[in-house]
Design brief:
With 201 residues, the protein is mainly alpha-helical. The protein has 2 domains: 45 residues, Orthogonal Bundle (Arc Repressor Mutant, subunit A), CATH 1.10.10; 147 residues, Tetracycline Repressor, domain 2, CATH 1.10.357. The termini are far apart.
Length: 201
């Protein structure tokens, strides 16, 4: 794409993000975005096929940052138990912080998860693949005891669901949102301790 084209695309995305934060996912429309960006809606469609395509791109840009940090953690030289703790903490904190600071964008993410859109499935696959690297390392170095990687991944998903499932986070009340960090940290510590002792499989 040419430099001029990239500039137009960036303007459309910035306008769409502003509208999303102001009006929420349901009221986001290509016509309004085009008007605010100073172009026809036909021109928006040259860059994005639909309103959903626009929303997915906004989510992709945010989730790419989350995934890059998860990748850095998974590839770090630290012991696997430390890495798993930091990995789960970052994943949960990224979601909760987004829900606190950017609730309408997070609502769009929860909607994408609910409808199993490609953007959410790709993110889930990447996060699981990066976590599997840590789990495999933990089993190989005997920091984690017991079962195969897939069973441990399933266990982690079950134990952490309240703190990493976007729909659960979206439904936090004010008290749960306030206490989520300390509750999450306790759960992760218990999980890591159990994996090391082989008592949670």
């Amino acid at each position: 794409m040419s430099g001029a084209g990239e500039g137009v695309e960036a303007r459309i995305l910035a306008t769409a993000l502003r509208h999303l934060r102001r009006d929420g996912p349901k009221r986001l429309t290509v016509v309004r975005i085009a008007e605010d960006a100073g172009m026809t809606h036909a021109n928006v469609y040259r860059y994005f096929r639909s309103k959903q395509d626009l929303g997915d791109r906004i989510l992709t840009d945010w989730l790419r940052e989350v995934e890059q940090r998860l990748a850095d953690i998974s590839q770090a030289p630290d012991p696997a138990d430390d890495k798993l703790e930091r990995f789960l903490t970052h994943l949960s904190r990224s979601y909760v912080d987004k829900a606190r600071a950017d609730p309408k964008v997070f609502a769009l993410f929860a909607e994408a998860v609910t409808t199993a859109r490609e953007v959410s499935r790709r993110h889930n696959q990447r996060a699981r693949a990066l976590m599997a690297v840590i789990v495999e390392e933990g089993l190989a170095t005997r920091l984690f005891s017991g079962a195969e990687v897939r069973r441990i991944e399933t266990l982690i998903g079950d134990v952490m669901a309240r703190f990493i499932d976007p729909l659960s986070i979206l439904n936090f009340d004010a008290q749960e949102m306030q206490q989520s960090d300390s509750r999450r940290d306790r759960v992760i510590r218990l999980l890591i301790r159990g994996l090391g002792a082989g008592r949670v499989i």
